[in-house]
What does this fold into?
Amino acid sequence: MAKVALVKGDDRKANIRHALELIADDIDLKGCRPILKVNFVSTYRLLCATHVDAACAVVEFLKDRGEKDIAIAEGATLGTTPRGFRTYGYQDLAKAHGLELIDLNEPDSWKVVYVVHPDMKPHPVRVADTMLDPNNYIISVTRPKTHLQVGVTLTAKNVIMGAIMIMDKVRMHPSQAGNRMLDYNLFNVMQHLHIDLGVVDALEGMEGDGPLNGEPVDHRVALAGTDYIAVDRVGTEVMGADFDEIRYLNYLWDHGFGEGDLDKIEVVGENIESCRRQYELSPRFLRMRRQENKGQYQDLAVYTG
It folds into this structure.
C-alpha cells in the first residue's frame, strides 16, 4: 500500500521535516545521487516558486542521513534559472551546504522525445539527461498551485515541465488548447522520467489564475511520499479539487505509474478532512471543461509554463 505523510503546522521547515520523518523508512537512495527538482515557473514572483526553506528542509534531512553529494535542479520558464537561484536564495543555500546548482535549460546532454499537436504529427522536445539518469534519485519539491489548462500542478508536473529545455516547453501546449492535448503530452513525457520522492510544501499555495497570476492560499500543510501519484492524489484532495478532472494524473494512474485510489493509500499524520481547503480553480480551466462537456472546442492562446 502506498503511504503519504500529511502534516500541518505554522513552520514550513518543521512541516516538511515532520512529513519526511513519517515516511523515513520508505526512503532508500540505494547509492543514487539526490537531485532536488524545485520549481521556478517564474523568477519574478515568489508565490510561483518553491520556497528556499522547503528545499533547505529536504537538504538537512538528507544530510542528517549521511548524504553529501546533493544537487538542486530547475529549468525556469519566465526569467533565467540563474536569476531564480540568485533571487530566491538558492545560491546562499548552495554555499551553506555545499550543493551543486543545475540549470536544466542548459544541459550537457539530452534525449529527444515526442509529443503530439492537433495536426496529429510527432513534435520533438528535448529532455535534460540529469532527469533521466537512473543513478539520480529525483525529489520533486513544489508548492500546490492551480493551473489554467490541467487544473492543478503538484509533484509530477513540476518534474515533467522542468525537465524540458526552455525553447521546447511551448511544444507541450498546443495552440488548440481546448482539446486537452497537454494532459496527454504530460503523460507521454513522464514515461521517460522518474520521481523517487514527492514533497509538497503547502504552507502557502496558489489558487485562481495559476500557475503564474493566482492568489495565495494560507494552507499550512505539507505532504511527502515515495509514490508521487499517491502524493498528488492526496494533494488534489487537500486542495478541494476533483481528482477525476485532473486527466494527466489519471492517465498516469491508469497505466501503473503510481496509486490513485484513496482506499489504497495510507495517509499518516493528519487526516485529509482536517487539512482540506477549497482552492478556487482557474476560470480558464473551468471554462474549458464546460465547453468540452458540451462538445465545444476552441483555439486558445499558447501558454508556456
About this structure: The radius of gyration is 18 Å. The domain at 2-293 is CATH 3.40.50.11440 (Rossmann fold).
